[in-house]
Amino acid sequence: MKKIYTTLVILAALALAKGAIAQDMSALPPILGAKVYKGVRLPQVNSPHDWRDLRAPLLKSIFQAEVYGRLPAPTPLNLISKITVDEAAFGGLGRLEEAVLASDALKVRLHVAYILPQTPGPHPVVIVTAFCGNGSTFSDDRLSLPAGGLPEFCARFKDAPPPAADDPDPYLFAPPIETLLKRGYAVASFATADLVIDDKDTAIIPLHLMNPSAPPDERLGAIAAWGWGYSKVIDFLETDPRFDPKRQAIYGHSRNGKAAMTAAAFDDRIDLIFAHQSGRGGASLSRSPVGEQVSNITGGFPHWFAPNYARYGDDPNRLPVDQHELIGLIAPRPVLLGAGVDDQWADPEGAWQAAVAATPVYQLMGHKGPTQTTRETPDMSADIAYFLRPGRHGTTRSDWGRFMDFMDSHFKTPRKP
Predict the structure, then answer these.
(1) Other CB atoms within 10 Å distance of the CB of residue 262
(2) Which residue, 108, 78, 75, is CA-closest to 209?
(3) What residue stretch is flagged as signal peptide (predicted)?
(4) CA trace torsion 319, 325, 329, 333 (10° rounding)
(5) By CB neighbour count within 10 A (0-12 exposed, 13-18 middle, 19+ buried), where does 308 fall?
(6) Is 268 helix (H, G, I), strand (E, B) or coil?
(7) Residue-wise pLDDT tens digits, 403-412
(8) What CATH number is associated with residue 284?
């Protein structure tokens, strides 16, 4: 009987990954239709102007109030120092540098490591978040450690070479830097722990200090704080003419994928995003009944979101917004969403449905949503692309390959090694 039950569970998961079980799309908040939020009427959206100037600012405010918390005021981080770490890193392919940015008012000290190809610029750049510090991103111990040190799980990946197989672990901590450089991309990295350490007991004070004027129920959450970090890195990169300000991509996986989604939604300077297996609070719909629920994520990680988000744990259908609208805030910029068949906790189908439901905003702006015919075969030229691969939670070599193909398609730099 146990074997039969296990088989049924596996079959159900596979069927769900193929879209056999779908969220009722009619239950989603209308993305272009009129609606009311706390007595304020949001009128029907009929033009790009309506979306950009009327609907989008209100949605950003609602997402901050109800899900992510109020972002910090536009306070700059000052450049404290900048050094060259290696003039000929990765066998001479790139120049590795590191900068320190800080704000006494926000109690923030952010280390940004970055590598540029040795070829003439300005270069398109990929900004990544480092689970295990900038040293892991570039496999270089000379780079600064994040505030509070490294999480314990980082030890097993230290000095581990990339595997021959498409294993989903090492590429979480060490992107394929050499391949990215050969394809013409600069890479910048920051550690989220420099902003807020991922600990529910210690995170609340620094989160409050980053925006002390926020109402208690709208207190800044760590996801949005980490997303704000991408914007602070962009502030710095845009002062350096070696980087192309019109080709700035961001990548995030899992909790960092949630952060990347907020960054792209709230910062129009981000030109392209790859949010991989970002799950609830990322690309997947909050209303979806599959995988990690709002009550799970706010119970386990109460520091990630505004306290208000937890109030919808018993009935996410009461939420006045959902993630298709967050994707709509990124429009018409390109979005790539990745998922794994065995990663049902991150709700792959909910991310696909959010992408489809965001399509009307892209169409309103003269662009297209997903044009692919199956979940497994993304159209890299589309403005919204999605892929479902075999395997579990993690980032693989092939995931990065798809990301680079997506950037090549949209940044028009098909420079493959």
Answers:
(1) 31
(2) 108
(3) 1-22
(4) 150
(5) buried
(6) coil
(7) 999 999 999 8
(8) 3.40.50.1820
